[in-house]
Structure formats: structure tokens, C-alpha cells
Fold:
Amino acid sequence: MTERATRGRAAVAAAALAAGALLLAGCGQGDGGTPDAKAAPAASAPAGSSAPPSAAVSAKPLAPGEVRVAGEVGKPYTLTLADLRGLPQTSASVKFTSAKGEQEHAYQGVPLNEVLKRAEPRFDQNKKNGALRGFVSATGGGDYRAVFAWAEIDPAFARSQVLLAVSEDGVAFDDAAGPRLVVPQDTKGGRYVSELNGLWVGVVDPLVDGAK
Structure:
């Protein structure tokens, strides 16, 4: 074989190798040189599965004074002091002990039970007194939080009514501060949640049944 033929075959082989390299480099690349979406599909929930409520629903930030009612309810919603003032009012004169000493006040507001009923709590009606498995978590300013058994706020079980107060001693709360939770049956003021911004309804079944 002549030297010219040898060089020709070497050139053809080099060109073939270069073409193959270019072809391989193009595999798995989309437009603009970024990885092809088909090569690395984005993770997604399996068909028919349900994401946790916190992942499925992106709740918008609350404005000052707003209260979000959510959890195990059919109709979550947000309310304000103006909304509460438009509802039937009741009053309560209370005495309790706080870090500031003995407190005595007159409050006006809306029974907590009435506010939560509008959200349609999802209690299991197939269980005897299914509502007694329920609870309510109330969150206020500074991420302060207190918990109530449903029986404490339901007039079918409780003697006194927990209120979402709109005023104290005749003085209306500022709209940006929101309502105050008032618990007439408590002797200490720890559950008098100020600057209320969240009411979350839950049931104990998942916690109790899943406990080890």
C-alpha cells in the first residue's frame, strides 16, 4: 500500500471518529446545550395520590389583623375584626390571673364555636360523639399557641363560651391587631390569646391510632 493511500485511510477513520463523538455529545442535550427534560424528568406525585395540605395548598401571607381558619374543615376561610363585628355579639365578664396580676374585664365578641361552625369541621359522624375527638389550636402574636378540646367550646358540652373578642371594657381592638381569644372558665390568662391570627381544627385519631 502506498504512503498516500495509508494517509487517506487514516483521514477517513479520523473523520468517522469525530462524527461519532459529535453524535454522542448531542445525545441527552436539548436546545441551548442544557440537559434534555426527557433524560431527567421532574419528580411528580403518582397519579391518584394526595399531597399533604401544606403542600397542596399554598396559603397567601396574612395581612395584619386577619385570622385564618383551617385544618380538618370543609370550608377554610379568613376573617377580620370587621367580619366579627358584623356577626351576632355576646359579652362576658371575666376574672383571671396573669403575669401582670389579677385581671378583671368585660369583653364583647363572637362565640368561637360559631366562627368554627362556618368552616364546617370534618368530624366522623359514624363514631359516637365524633366531635369529642376534635381539638382547636389557636395561634397569636409571636407564634404564641394554645389548644382547646372541642368540648370546651361547644355549647352542647360546655357551660361557658370561649369568645373571639372585638373589644375590652368598651374599647374596640385595633383592626391591625386582630381579635383576642377570651376563655371565661379559665382562672389563669394563658389561653387568652392576643393578636389571634390562626385557628386550626384537628382530630386526635391519627395521633392516637398511629402512636407506638
The chain is about 25% helix and 25% strand.
